[in-house]
Write a structure and sequence with these properties.
With 281 residues, the protein is an alpha/beta fold. It contains 8 helices and 10 strands. The chain has an 8-stranded mixed beta sheet with strand order 1-2-4-3-5-6-9-10, with helices on both faces.
């Protein structure tokens, strides 16, 4: 096992937004590139130690910020007033990585973080050598009753910070019982999302898929065929719309939502590492 330096860093917030906490894994030698991974909703950087170790051993600096309201970052749990607040958090991590060496950046994201990463890539495609998204939250893979959504939209205006159950079972995220148990025992696993955050996320998903043609650089889209949370077909639509000539879509047969925490997670991690290495040769 190669020596890896693990640290916790503070990311200055942009445009009056709060400072964030992030975890960083760095190789002992100079990094091939910086990889920024944005985590999912009700998720945090501490759940990716195995991935951070693997990427750093492969020669990459691996940075994961905690979104506001998640992990060690400040803010009401699972709450934003505008989806753009998540964009600003992701951009804060990008700006931090840009200030380091080397200035070659690869942006990644899982679930909500995959959605946010896709939006950032569309806004500033010139910043990245490549972008990869894992199970991006571009559409739910289960239907919500119309009357329920109607009520949630009303609540989001009257009580925007009201915490709602996210209706996601830990058992639907991974086949690995150890990973499921760790999440259940995780003090940062709050299992809710605010009414306003939920509506803001849903209302911005379509724009991201439609505007995928703006992104021209290398793209890797990954999804599990048995994802119970986010829709693999939405990922395929995003992939098909992307303006990239160098793009790849990988559907992992039988995998659940959390590809990087699945039983066969090493297959996914190694696939991403190999793809990142191809961009830095």
């Amino acid at each position: 096992m190669k020596k890896v330096e693990i640290s916790e860093v503070s990311l200055p917030g942009l445009e009056g937004n709060p400072d964030l906490t992030a975890r960083l894994w760095q190789p002992e030698e100079s990094a091939r590139a910086w990889i920024i991974l944005l985590h999912g909703q009700n998720d945090h950087s501490g759940r990716y130690s195995h991935a951070g170790q693997a990427f750093a051993e492969a020669g990459f600096a691996f940075l994961i910020p905690d979104f506001r309201g998640h992990g060690k970052s400040p803010g009401k749990r699972g709450h934003v007033l505008r989806f753009s607040e998540y964009i600003r958090d992701g951009e804060a991590a990008v700006r931090y990585a840009e200030s380091q060496q080397p200035r070659r950046l690869i942006l990644g994201g899982h679930s909500l973080g995959g959605f946010v990463a896709a939006c950032i890539a569309e806004e500033m495609p010139q910043e990245f050598a490549g972008v990869f998204v894992s199970s991006p939250f571009l559409r739910l893979n289960f239907a919500l009753p119309g009357f329920q959504m109607f009520l949630v939209r009303i609540i989001s205006r009257i009580l925007p910070g009201l915490a709602l159950d996210n209706h996601v079972k830990d058992e639907d995220l991974s086949h690995d019982p150890d990973m499921i148990q760790q999440k259940k025992e995780d003090p940062d696993n709050f299992g809710t999302i605010s009414a306003r955050a939920f509506v803001e996320i849903l209302d911005n998903q379509g724009n991201c898929i439609q505007q995928a043609e703006k992104y021209k650089n290398p793209l890797l889209v990954l999804h599990g065929s048995s994802d119970q949370v986010t829709d693999p077909k939405a990922s395929e639509e995003f992939y098909n719309n992307a303006g990239s000539r160098n793009k790849d879509f990988r559907l992992y047969d039988g995998f659940f939502h959390e590809l990087l925490n699945e039983t066969d997670r090493n297959q996914v991690i190694n696939d991403i590492i190999a793809w990142c290495q191809s961009l830095t040769e």
